[in-house]
Design goal:
Elements lengths: L3 E11 L6 E4 L2 E2 L9 E9 L10 E4 L8 E2 L5 E6 L6
Antiparallel strand pairs: 1-4, 1-6, 1-7, 2-3, 2-5
Length: 87
């Protein structure tokens, strides 16, 4: 079976402040997004942030003025797999 080697989260946002936070299964992504502008971000992470089964992605706003807006189409995770076969 091929092994997952990396993961990338794609998310489109409109933020009320520069930078927002995202967690994937308790791994915190670097801040992303732009204040009062549309932003399409690609957040790269090692595949170890993912687990077999259900994965939880949590978005946290850093402001009470105007929080993060997650835009459609909804966020997606792409996973890269190794072509090497494991015994």
């Amino acid at each position: 079976m091929a092994q997952a080697t990396s993961a990338k989260l794609f998310v489109q946002t409109w933020n009320g402040i520069d930078g927002e936070a995202t967690e994937i299964n308790s791994w915190t992504a670097p801040l992303y997004g732009l204040s009062h502008y549309y932003s399409l971000d690609e957040i790269i992470k090692a595949a170890s942030a993912l687990k077999i089964g259900t994965n939880t992605v949590t978005y946290k706003s850093l402001t009470t003025h105007h929080g993060i807006e997650i835009l459609w189409p909804e966020p997606a995770v792409a996973i890269r797999y190794s072509s090497k076969q494991t015994p």
